[in-house]
Amino acid sequence: MDDRPNPSPVYAHSIKNAPAEHWQTMRDHALAVAELAAERGMKFGASELARVAGLLHDVGKYSDSFQRKLMGETLRVDHSTAGARIAAERYAQLGRLLAYVIAGHHAGLANGTGDGSPTPLDLRLDPRRYLDVPAASGWEHEIALPGELAWAPPAPSTDQVIARQRRGLSLSVLVRMLFSALVDADRLDTEAFYAKAEQRRIERGSWQLLALLKEQLDRFMAAKAAEAVPSRVNLERARILNAARTKAADEPGLFSLTVPTGGGKTLASLTFGLDHAVKHSLDRVIYVIPFTSIIEQTAAVFREALGPLADHVIEHHSAFREDEALRQLERAAGGESGLQAGERLRLAAENWDAPVIVTTAVQFFESLFSNRPSQCRKLHNIARSVVILDEAQTLPLKVLRPCVAVLDELARNYRTTIVLCTATQPALAAHRRDGRDGFEGGLIGVREIVDDPHGLYERLRRVTVKPAETLDDARLIERLRQHDRALCIVGTRAHARDLFLALKDQPGTHHLSALMCPTHRSKKLNEIKAALEYGCCRLIATTVVEAGVDIDFPVVYRVMAGLDSIAQAAGRCNREGKLKREEAIVQLFEIEGRRSVPELRINEDTARSILRRHDHDPLGLDAIEDYFGQLYWKKSQGRDDGLDASTGWPDRKCGSILERLNLRAAECLLPLADVAGAFRLIETAMEPVIIPYDEEARRLVEELAKAERPGKLPRKLQPYIVNVPRGVFKKLREIGRVKPVQEHAFEDQFMALTEEARDELYNEDVGFDWSDPTFQKVESVVA
Q1: What is the pLDDT of residues 251-262, one digit of tens each?
Q2: Which helix (DSSP H) or strand (DSSP E) does residue 730 occupy?
Q3: In what order do the strands lie in the sheet with 284-289?
Q4: Residues contacting residue 492 through CB under 8 Å, at least 6 positions apart
Q5: What fold, for 210-328+354-457?
Q6: pTM value?
Q7: Of 492, 584, 483, 580, which is closest to residue 539 (Cα–Cα)?
Q8: Which stretches within 548-637 are classed as H helix?
Q9: What is the structure's pLDDT at 639?
Q10: Which CATH code is given to the segment(s) 11-197?
């Protein structure tokens, strides 16, 4: 390193009302971020790439204009492009990959070229065309770069066709992983600097070793087994658990856990995850549940199992509006570089540093295809982890190929073990169990955890599925009145609400949907379980009840749906096997006067066909395999591949996500911003709203309203979030029912229902209710 000092110190971060000698120097910041980024990049074999990104990310701050900004002048300064240009000039194609990361570490990953973003990367890298970059000098005296970068490229798929089709996807995942490593390192070092300056304790880390979590789980499972009543179902659960423990010793990679609903797969999969992670020195377990599921129920099961280490389980389902809040701050401050780093830290995002993460498929997959710093910050923590996909077959068909491709990439190149944990396997494997072709382009080498899944399904058959009847609401309500204990599952929240209100006068009638905040749903489920045990219980619910909810009804009414959804509904019937199979009824029905969700009609039509062909065992593995084979074939027919999104592109041209990523991958020109916009698991954009549901929620909101930085409060507020459609959100905002918790500090990052609106729009029966005509036009069909 050239040890000639700069004429005067160059600073990265300033402190309000403090002399410059107390500020953070650029040299200190660059070296610290480089080390933190390298540590994160080491997890996926890209330590040196991440280190260089850390060294160069803020080189633009060596400009005179940025230093004047820190001294108080009102200037717009691009401090990200300078380092990106240096990387691209010095390191050829690897440098171009680093340029995406460096140029986007505040504003987000741009497209490599084209019209999809205001300033694509190739424009920013060209000093003849993009002139808004101040000269940075003196950085060479403090930052030493390697002459060359040594790096082994990601291993391609063993299938040559798939390898060619996914080259762009592979590069895009690498860029996002490096982006994650840099963003997290940058935020953590900046956070540490300001915490020291403000004499604050940083509320991060302090996690126990996974081996201690495993020991606690083993003790819990041993006690649970000792207390279990001898039964056929409990015997099978014990066998499943033992199989999970045995297979945990196998090498990391792709696994499936094929267990009928009610077979104890939730705790068996956690046992596999912790055992496997400890055996192979992996970092964490990430449990991914369907976006229509009840996340708090799974998290509660894990916390109960981990007892004194329960705080090591982190729920992450609602992404607070950090990016929107940052954009507002940037506009007010005159651009991204107008923000003090301390202001950014008020909007700190979740980084998945905990040992056990419980999240949703929306959060998991949309982050893997995102270009925003807040969403991507956590991605490096997916590397060297066990990812358990609960009910993996529920992934939306329109993005199934990109989802499968990214799972394969994580398993091959990021030492991530993927567990397809579901009652309806195999949905995503390239080959069926009998050797026939399965999902085209699917996962290769998936190892089953449970021996003889067919035999297991036969031993755990507990229900009789009755063919669909055609009913109207009045006849359905009358049928439900005839049962003391019955569950009715319908496809939309509006329908569930209408049926509940019609039956509300009957004793023991309950309602459940995602319009209840998690704390409210947990309370409601406890009431439902008590009613099932001691009295009358009729539950009207959306599909939110079909995964991760441990309830047991003698009869279930299920509106016609895909076969996987019917199997999930059946898992709430005779769950403990106390009834004869002929006595436990799953009654399918079609409803007159109401149309189903358009995207799901192909699932329903396919299920009708399969139910006719497999009427002797409609929920057996043979029927399930036929269902998915036919469903995927139907969806992939036509001009475009219906299993890879071909809409939402800014240029309005057709083309799948994988095709677009591959188009100019050889030149490292990746449409990262366009892909982020096109990849959506659900069509309806949702916004998180904090509900002041009880005294604890009100206390946390008050604490957040007074806080300078959110700290752990966003995690603590997760149980009080309801995600509402953006149209409803905007209407509520306009009329003052939803307001920022602390506008001057967090802008619009944390939005809460007002106390007055709590009484007006939220009630104990149905949760958040905007059935008033003002809001009916934007009613969502999401569960």
Answers
A1: 999 999 988 877
A2: helix 726-734
A3: 313-316, 356-360, 284-289, 385-390, 417-422, 254-258, 447-448
A4: 542, 594, 597, 781
A5: Rossmann fold (3.40.50)
A6: 0.86
A7: 483
A8: 563-570, 601-613, 621-636
A9: 47
A10: 1.10.3210
